[in-house]
Amino acid sequence: KQEVTQIPAALSVPEGENLVLNCSFTDSAIYNLQWFRQDHGKGLTSLLLIQSSQREQTSGRLNASLDKSSGRSTLYIAASQPGDSATYLCAVPQGAQKLVFGQGTRLTINP
Amino acid sequence: GAVVSQHPSRVICKSGTSVKIECRSLDFQATTMFWYRQFPKQSLMLMATSNEGSKATYEQGVEKDKFLINHASLTLSTLTVTSAHPEDSSFYICSARGGLSTSYEQYFGPGTRLTVT
Q1: Interface contact B43-A89, CB threshold 8 A
Q2: Which class for B80: exposed (0-12), middle (13-18), buried (19 or more C-beta within 10 A)?
């Protein structure tokens, strides 16, 4: 059974800082890994999807890496802004259908 | 592309009544749709997986007679909460995946906030 863990559970940093969010998973036989953003009371916005054959993906100030062998992924956010404040979730498929989510990291960027 | 909508975004109903939530894929055909439930400050919990034209597969512990799922077309799935109780109050999110997707990527709707009084 796949289990996904995110550390830290919450993070508060001043605006402008670079930061790293961590995600680990127990079963390395994954098709891909996704990072999502969820604003309070809202649905999920997909940020990045890394295929199992890839090591990283970049979108603007976001960079996600994947190390399947160690069961880890990181989401790097450069030059953080108050608008980046949200909960960040990582998820991996279990089999071909089900997505297993981590508990999320609640990020607060202070102006 | 790959937009998923949900309706309604918020609903308040009285205990004992039934509520239907719609999930639509707007610009692609969704052969598979998923329904999740999220409690405050918790992560998403998969309730069921539905494939177009067949019965939904429910996760362990989810009452299929209480949470009725219908995936009658390639663009629409519905979740009906029957005989709702206050403990059913939650945030319900659907997602959809296209039949041609080889990346297993799911696209999520904006969610529906259900409050049962």
Answers
A1: yes
A2: middle
Residue A3 backbone phi and psi in degrees, to 5: -130, 140
Mutate to test the interface with A, among B105, B112, B115 (most CBs of A within 10 A): B105
Question: Which residues have a Cβ under 8 Å from the Cβ of B16 and sit 6 or more positions away?
Answer: B83, B84, B85
Distance CA A91, CA B70 (A): 25
Distance CA B93, CA B106 (A): 12
Tell me the pLDDT tens digit for each residue of A20-68: 999 999 998 888 999 999 998 899 999 999 999 999 999 999 999 999 9
Lookup result for tokens 């639509």: B24
Q: What is the pLDDT of residues B2-40, one digit of tens each?
A: 899 999 999 999 999 999 999 999 988 888 999 999 988
Counting one residue from chain A and one from chain B, the pairs whose CB atoms sit within 8 A come to 51
Where does residue A68 rank: exposed (0-12), middle (13-18), buried (19+ CB within 10 A)? Answer: middle
The verdict on a CB contact (< 8 Å) between B103 and A96 is no
A 40-99 near B (Cβ less than 8 A)? 41-46, 49, 51, 89, 93, 96-99
Closest Cα in chain B, distance from residue A107 (Å): 13
Whole-number Å distance between alpha carbons of B82 and B20: 9
* Contact flag A46-B43 (C-beta cutoff 8 Å): no
